[in-house]
Amino acid sequence: MTAVSNAGPLIHLAKIGRINLLKEIFNGIIIPESVKVEVIDKGKEKGKSDAFLIGNIDWIKVVDDPSDVDQLAEKVGIHRGEACAILLAKSLNVPVLLDDSDARKFALGLGLEVVGSIGIIIRAVKLGLISKEDGLKDLERLANVMWLSVDVYEKARKVIESL
After folding, report:
1. CB contact at 8 A, 71 and 79
2. pLDDT in tens, 25-77
3. What span, in angstroms and rounded, lies between the C-alpha atoms of 21 and 36?
4. Which of 6, 76, 110, 118 is the most buried (most CB within 10 A)?
5. Which among 125, 66, 70 is positioned nearest to 96, based on CA atoms?
6. Cα–Cα distance, 44 to 67 (Å, whole number)
């Protein structure tokens, strides 16, 4: 099964050295052009190592942005890349990878399966792709590269420990 990703999960997982989990869990990732520009093009301009890594992955496919996305993004109050990823996932009937809470709420309201960076780590532990110990270490690494509330962190830690 393929998934559509927004920028956050790609960047966060690349920064902690776990971008490969996306391939192992979903077989391939689709990103809209606006996400490519945000993650790869602008990241390379800033010299971000994760942008070069992501830009060289052959199982990440770039597709055109859906039309009329700007109106939707403005109306709903989410970024363009998030709106593109959500619309693309809806049209393809595949999961969408998002970390932003407002975008996640909107996607869930559309009936989409939503997975974030933490969810990828949890799935990897469940599937036996990584150990519980590595999952807990990865959760700690994520907390160093993205904002996590104490509640979200603790909930995720308990889920990983219970697997």
Report:
1. no
2. 999 999 999 999 999 999 999 999 999 999 999 999 999 998 889 888 888 99
3. 19
4. 6
5. 66
6. 26
- Taking 3-state DSSP, the helix, strand and coil percentages for the chain, each rounded to the nearest 5, stand at 65, 10, 25
- Residues of the chain above pLDDT 70, percent: 100
Cβ atoms of 141 and 160 closer than 8 Å: no
What's the CA gap between 137 and 55, in Å, rounded? 26
Instruction: Give residue 70's pLDDT.
Output: 87
CA of residue 90 relative to chain centroid, distance: 16
Distance CA 107, CA 101 (A): 10
Give counts: helices (H), strands (E), the chain.
11, 5
Nearest to 116 by CA among 74, 159, 75, 161: 159
Q: Using one digit for the tens of pLDDT, what is the confidence trace for 83-98? A: 999 999 999 999 999 9
Main-chain dihedrals φ then ψ at residue 38, nearest 5 degrees: -65, -45
